[in-house]
Design brief:
Radius of gyration: 20 Å
Strand content: 35-45%
Helix content: 10-25%
Order of helices and strands: EEEEEHHHEHEHEEEEHEE
Number of strands: 13
Largest sheet: 7 strands, antiparallel
Structural class: alpha+beta
Shape: globular
Length: 308
């Protein structure tokens, strides 16, 4: 078991005053079997005129707020204390063949076979989504994935092989892409960041008829030996979960080519980044803007309390 203090600060600077801002924030980690949110605070400057908590379609905690007073800067500071337990993933070779998982979802959604209860939600993650369109590129993604998803191969084993292939074939380059970079461009240029690699892997899995979802969160990154942890040096992270009958959702982090452990903190999940972006909204006015984001993940010793 490990506890963390997680700080996520976002500041928008506008060229001219914003008269109205309405935002949706995914900044409170969701409660899952291996993770508990011990405390959560959200500070908004200028103060929100309206603010309420709810759950989105995917069950993620959401804060919806609006600022009605004119402002040329919006700052949103989330502070969470999280407890994460160790995770034990199933033996890769012990999962059923990947074709069986595909067929179970396909036949169930078409009405030709009953779906298991835990698969009913998984069906919505089989199809293209705004940040992971398939269309004509579907065959390209499927061909790439089939190098790992050979006939009869256990699903988890094939999943880990695909993660390893993406990790080997693609270079991590924060300057190569933006939030709006299409998956097809990432695939062609073989460069990107965790969001890009997760979208690409999801495209490959969905192209094979499997259910794959996008998981957003944070990753504990260790500083170089002898160096202090830098405040704001960490960043939001993303990885992938695939549904496997009998096992449920199995996760993998293609950016680091590993399965998430106690250093991965789950924030939210959805079809792609667009469903779980930390802040999303509309404004009236503002002109141009620039944004600053700082994320810090600090491990706490037992009984330790991080300063406010």
């Amino acid at each position: 078991m490990q506890e963390y203090d997680v700080r996520h600060d976002t500041t928008y600077h506008y060229d001219s005053p914003v008269l109205l801002s309405q935002q949706i924030a995914h900044l409170r980690p969701r409660e899952v079997a291996h993770q508990q949110c011990l405390s959560h605070t959200l500070a908004i400057e200028p103060p929100a005129s309206v603010q309420r908590e709810r759950r989105d379609f995917f069950g993620n905690p959401v804060t919806a707020f609006a600022v009605y007073s004119p402002h040329d800067r919006l700052r949103v500071r989330a502070r969470n204390r999280i407890r994460v337990d160790p995770r034990c993933w199933p033996e890769a070779a012990g999962s059923l063949a990947w074709e069986a998982a595909r067929d179970h979802l396909r036949d169930g959604l078409s009405g030709h076979a009953p779906l298991q209860d835990d698969a009913r939600d998984a069906g919505q993650y089989r199809f293209g989504s705004p940040f992971v369109p398939l269309g004509e590129a579907s065959a390209t993604y499927a061909d790439y994935a089939l190098q790992c998803f050979t006939p009869g191969r256990p699903l988890v084993e094939a999943l880990l092989a695909l993660s390893a292939r993406i990790h080997a074939d693609f270079s991590f380059d924060p300057e190569a892409t933006s939030v709006a970079t299409p998956v097809a461009q990432v695939f062609a240029e073989r460069r990107g960041v965790c969001q890009d690699f997760s979208h690409l892997m999801i495209a490959c899995l969905r192209a094979l008829g499997l259910a794959a979802r996008y998981v957003s969160g944070y990753l504990l990154t260790a500083p170089p030996p002898g160096q202090p942890r830098l405040i704001g040096a960490d960043a939001s992270h993303a990885w992938v979960a695939v549904w496997c009958p009998g096992l449920g959702w199995v996760e993998v982090d293609p950016t680091n080519d590993l399965q998430p452990g106690s250093g991965h903190i789950t924030l939210a999940w959805g079809r792609d980044y667009g469903d779980v972006s930390p802040l999303r909204g509309v404004i009236l006015g503002g002109g141009g803007h620039k944004v600053e984001v700082a994320v810090t993940v600090m491990p706490l010793e037992e009984g330790e309390h991080a300063p406010l």
